[in-house]
Amino acid sequence: MSISINIFYPKDKEEIKESNTKSKKEQVIHQKDSLKSDGITINMNIDNDKSVFEYFFMFSIMVLVFRFSKQEIIQLFVTGLSVSLIIMFSIKAEFTPDNVIPNLILGILMFVISFPTERKRQKKFYEQYDFHYNRNYENLRMKKELDYAREIQLSMLPENEATIGDIEIAAVSLPASEVGGDYFDYFKISENEIGIFICDVSGHGVASGLLLSGLRSCMHLILEDNTKPGIVIEKLNRMIRKTQNRKMFVTAIFAIIDVEKNKCYLYNAGHLPPYKISGESKEIFKIRKHGIALGAMKTVESAGQDNEVVFDFNKSDKIIFYTDGVNEAMDNKLTEYGLDNLELYLNNNADKKASDLLNGLVGDVKKFCGNISQRDDLTLLIIQRN
User: Is the pLDDT score of 6 beyond 60?
Assistant: First the structure.
């Protein structure tokens, strides 16, 4: 079998001529314009002594040489048959083995020529598919683990509302990410003493959650031996300094409320200053004194100073603890809620009970921020003496 193809770009008319001989069959396509200078000529010479089995043998050799898969063999045959049918329709030839098989072979040759490029393209496609599939699977797995970690962290928090003797407690913690860095706790130490703890770990995510978990466990172990705020904070600082693998620190407040002595003993380790609202005068006091954040230095005590604060805590008095997610909450203009707005709200609502004061303050912060997503966790803890 011999195939010759001459291509000339057409301009106008087309003429089709067919001539047959006993020894061979020639299909000639002439396309000429008015100047008879352009045309397309395809000459196919087929030897009658070539049988269908010989062509099938040639096809089998190509399959073995190129090692096509079953899917590729089907694609190979369909491509060749399609090209054959298109050519037969275009030249209006009879559908005989002598006409179909050469065109089939031509289509197969076209497929074989383009096969390496196609296989490379498919390989690249599958590699990209595997990459995106694995990445999406990994993202889903990580999200599931973070959600599970968040559930564990939330389970460590006490109830948002509680009453212990004469003390009413209202609290809320709203994480900005799957695993937050804020934590609060309260617990009964003795018949007359209640312990209060709030902290904020630098950063977010799993690392913060793990540090909080260790901090909580360590604190409860320390309280079995000593409840003095300064000693508890100092031991927590040592634990963080020994166990942290990253440069992380924690701001925290630990307080003991003694209802028999009407006193509050408070130690602030680099945390935002809490507020006290007098139940009698409705006056607001900012408790400014504080030491160094946990994990930042070998000791939390400032040089030559006792950073523990003691103040009266009488009937109807309230203490407001919070994290920087409150004062650093932003609106769409990147303006922070700030301590001024916090103090203004407390002044205007000083007579409200703990739960109403907390819900109103959270609502005021959300109203200020609108629909803007916040970058930090928001935690509030309000203690009221009844």
Answer: no
Q: Are 60 and 109 in contact (CB under 8 A)?
A: no
- Tokens 């390989």 label which residue? 123
Strand partners, 270: 252
Is 76 in contact with 108 (CB distance < 8 Å)?
yes
pLDDT tens digits along 132-177: 888 888 878 777 777 776 777 777 889 999 999 999 999 999 877 6
Containing 112, the helix (H) or strand (E) segment is helix 97-156
CATH code of residue 319? 3.60.40.10
pLDDT band of 380, cuts 50, 70, 90 = very high
**What's the number of domains the chain is made of?**
2
Characterize the bridge pairing of strands 250-258 and 263-269: antiparallel
pLDDT greater than 50 at residue 272 = yes
Whether residue 170 sits in one domain with residue 103: no
For residues 35 and 42, what is the distance between their CA atoms, to the nearest angstrom? 20
Q: What is the DSSP letter of 36?
A: S
Alpha helices, H only, 47-96: 52-66, 70-91
CA distance 43 to 28: 6
> 188-213: string of b/e by CB count within 10 Å (b at 16+)?
eeeeebbbbbbbbbbebeebbbbbbe
At 64-89, the pLDDT tens digits run: 555 566 666 666 666 666 666 666 66
Residues 111 and 165 in one domain: no
Q: What are the structure tokens assigned to 365, written together?
A: 């912060």
Q: Is the pLDDT of residue 299 over 50?
A: yes
**Mean pLDDT of the 4-32 span:** 41
Q: What DSSP assignment string belongs to 202-258? A: SS-SHHHHHHHHHHHHHHHHHHTT---HHHHHHHHHHHHHHH-SSS--EEEEEEEEE
Q: Exposed/middle/buried for 359, CB within 10 Å: 0-12, 13-18, 19+?
A: middle
Residues 230, 238: contact at Cβ < 8 Å? no
Q: What's the average model confidence in pLDDT over 81-110?
A: 60
User: Is the pLDDT at 358 greater than 70, yes or no?
Assistant: yes
Two tokens, residue 38: 């352009």
Is residue 130 included in any domain, yes or no? no
Which residues constitute the domain of residue 20?
2-124
Nearby residues of 273 by Cβ (< 8 Å), 6 or more positions away:
286, 287, 288, 290
How far is 13 from 36, CA to CA, in rounded Å?
A: 10
